Amino acid sequence: MNISISQSSDFSIHNLPYGIFSTANNTQKRVGVAIGQYILDLAGLAALGLFKHLHIDETVFSQVSLNAFMALGQQKTQAVRQSLQNYLRHPDSMLQQYPQVLVKQIHATMHMPIAIGDYTDFYSSIEHATNVGKMFRDPAKALLPNWRHLPVGYHGRAYSIILGRQAVHRPMGQIMLKGATHPIFAPSERVDFELEMAFVIGKNSALGQRISTAEASNYIFGMLLFNDWSARDIQKWEYVPLGPFLGKSFASSVSAWVVPLTALAPFKVAGPVQEPPVLPHLQYTGFHNYDIALEVGIQAPNSREKIVSVSNFKYMYWNMVQQLAHHTSNGCNVRIGDLMASGTISGKDERSYGSMLELSWNGTKPFAMPDGSTRTFLRDYDTVNMRAYGEKAGIRVGFGELRTQLLPCL
C-alpha cells in the first residue's frame, strides 16, 4: 500500500484526525481517519483484527459518532493513533496486506463527527471584544469590567450545529430599524460569519466537581473548525439583558474532522500576558495557546474566492484550560461530546479580524469582491470557506476546509 501525501496536505501522518463517513458501496456510518487524500476505515481494520492487541471494544469503530470511541479514554485512543502511525510507517506492516481499508475522500460522504450533548460559546479574543466595545460603547471603555477577570461565555443551541457542507438559510427575526419606534419581523440584513475553533469534551465529570486548569487537558479530546453564524441586527435588538438567542441559534457549522489534541502539541505557544493577574482557580502553568493559522474566504456565485481574514488561534486571551476550569468552577458537569467554542478569533490588524462586523466596521466600510460587487455583510448564495493548520519544522497538521453556503430564507 503506497500512500502519497503532499507536503501541503492537512492530513499528514502527524495528524490522523477522526471523522464519521460512509460510501456508496457501504452506507453504514463508521469511524475513519484522514491520511492524505484517503480515509482509513477503522471499522474495516478492526474487523481484520488489527486492533486486537489493544484489548478494546472494537464496536466503537462502527458507531454513528465518535462519542463511544472518545469514551475509551486518552490512553486507549492514543494507543490507536500510535498503532496507525506504526502501520503507516512500516512497509511490511499488516496494514499493507489490506488495501481495501483505504477509501478516497472524494468517494466518501462525511457526517457529523460527534453527538453534541451541550454547547457553550465563549468570548475570549481581547482584540474582538475590544473592537465590538469600540463600535457600540465608549471606545475608552471598550471592555466591560468583568472581561479581564473571567472567560465570558453563554449557553448555546446544540441541535442547530450542523456539518459544514449543509447550507444555512438566512434567518428571520425581530429587527429595530434605525429611527423606528417599533420592531419589525423580517429577514436579517446583517448575516455574518464568526471565525472560531472549538474543542470536544472526551471525558465525563460529576455534578459538583470542579476541573482545575491542571486537569483540563485530560478532558479535551480534540478540536475542530467552527463557524458561529450570527444575525447582527436580530442580535442587537434581543441581546439586552440576557445575551445572544435567536440571532445565534439558527445555525453553527463545524468541520468534518476532529484533530486530536495530542497532534497539536508541536504548536503550543505562550499566551498573552493577562493583566490584572487572574484569580487562583484560573491560573495555569505551561503553554496552552496554539499557533494555528486561520483563513476565511468569501465566494460569490460564479466568481472566485476573496480572502477576507487571515488570523491565528494563538491570539486568544483566554485559553482552553481556563475556559474549561471556569465553566466547571461552580460545579457544572461536562459530558463526552460537549462542544466548547472559542468565540470570534481576531488579530491585531484589520486583515486579521474574524467577523464581517469588524471587517466592515459595523457596515460603514464596504469591501470589494472579485465580481465587482461589495460586501458589508453576507449576501444570499455567498459561500464562506474557513481553513486552519499548524506548521512547524516540517510538521503540518490541518483541519480541512469548513465550507458553507448561505441561502435565502425558507
Number of domains: 2
CATH architecture annotation of the largest domain: Alpha-Beta Complex
Quickly count the helices. 8
CATH fold field value of the largest domain: Fumarylacetoacetate hydrolase, domain 2
Low-confidence stretches: none
Characterize the overall form: globular
Radius of gyration based on Cα positions: 22 Å
Main sheet? Answer: 8 strands, mixed
**Could you give me the name of the CATH homologous superfamily of the largest domain?**
Fumarylacetoacetase-like, C-terminal domain
- Beta-strand percentage range: 25-35%
What is the count of β-strands? Answer: 26
Structural class comes to alpha+beta
- Mean pLDDT across all residues, rounded? 96
Which helices and strands occur, and which strands form pairs?
Layout: E1 18-23, E2 30-35, E3 38-41, H1 42-47, H2 67-70, H3 74-89, E4 102-104, E5 108-111, E6 119-122, H4 126-136, E7 153-155, E8 161-163, E9 168-169, E10 172-175, E11 184-187, E12 191-192, E13 195-201, E14 220-227, E15 230-231, H5 232-238, H6 246-249, E16 252-254, E17 259-260, E18 268-269, E19 289-290, E20 293-299, E21 305-312, H7 320-327, E22 339-341, H8 356-359, E23 367-368, E24 374-375, E25 383-392, E26 395-407
Parallel strand pairs: 6-22, 8-16, 9-26
Antiparallel strand pairs: 1-2, 1-5, 2-3, 3-4, 6-7, 10-11, 12-15, 13-14, 13-22, 14-16, 14-17, 18-19, 20-21, 20-25, 23-24, 25-26
Question: What would you say this structure looks like, in words?
Answer:
With about 400 residues, the chain is α+β, with helices and mostly antiparallel strands. It folds into two domains: about 20-110, SH3 type barrels (Roll), CATH 2.30.30; about 120-405, Alpha-Beta Complex (Fumarylacetoacetate hydrolase, domain 2). Strands 6, 7, 8, 13, 14, 16, 17 and 22 form an eight-stranded mixed sheet that branches. It has a five-stranded antiparallel sheet with strand order 4-3-2-1-5. Strands 9-26-25-20-21 form a five-stranded mixed sheet, with no helix packed on it. It has eight helices and 26 strands. Strand 25 (about 385-390) and strand 26 form a beta hairpin. The protein is globular.
